[in-house]
Amino acid sequence: MTSSAGNGRAGSDEFAMARDRMIRVLRDEFDVSDERVLGVMASVPRHLFVPEALKFQAYRNNALPISGKQTISQPLIVARMTELLDLEKKHKVLEIGTGSGYQTAILAKLGGKIYSIERVLDLAETAKKRLAGLNNVTIKCSDGTNGWDAYSPFDRILVTAGAPVPPEPLVAQLSNGGKIVIPVGDEKERQNLIRITKTPEGVVRETFGACSFVPLIGDHGWEA
Ligand code: SAH
Known about the structure:
This protein is an alpha/beta fold. Helix content is 25%, strand content 27%. It has one domain (3-211): Vaccinia Virus protein VP39 (Rossmann fold), CATH 3.40.50.150. It contains six helices and nine strands; from the N terminus they run H-H-E-E-H-E-H-E-H-E-E-H-E-E-E. A seven-stranded mixed β-sheet has the order 5-4-3-6-7-8-9. Strands 1-2 form a two-stranded antiparallel ribbon. The longest helix is centred in the first third of the chain and has 13 residues, at 16-28. The mean pLDDT is 95.
């Protein structure tokens, strides 16, 4: 494959069949129904976002270790969170927890401008290189629990690490009518998937079942 991971011209590589199978499993066994999300996941080469030694596992429905004791999220949870965001091309999106950059690539194909923050320098640098082919992605290394004020307000915010409570700066940097999708839980590695919608009357909070993410560490998250 000659294109970078972010270009997503993945149709003809050696993993094409495995990737198609992953999409069928998501649709038929896990009831992922948003064909836009499935279509984009069918076009992003997930094997380029995992360590070389694990690339043959890239299309199983599992989280996998990346560097810095972090993980690339399970395909099912990527699909669910992306569905819940209900992205449009006009949206400005903030992502907290770039990690491998896989979810970032999915967001970039559905949303407008994507701003993504990762606290582990090595991961942020690797993701920047992987996604260099996408001109609507900006990545920085920082504590994402403080948001990214310079580009706020955001139409959508996605947090891909587990928070004790929704960080207050993120709610503040959300536009009216905007949505945050975030795993929230009292325990460091067990959460419920939450969607917060900002309305003129206040915030609406919906819960979408249990999940397990690495902890969100920072000023408005867990202590390191
Ligand atoms: N979406 C990523 C998930 C990575 S795991 C992927 O699929 O590859 C969650 C990531 O959140 C980790 O890389 C971790 O370092 C990062 N993280 C944790 N706390 C953070 C914070 N306060 N700001 C930014 N990133 C954070």
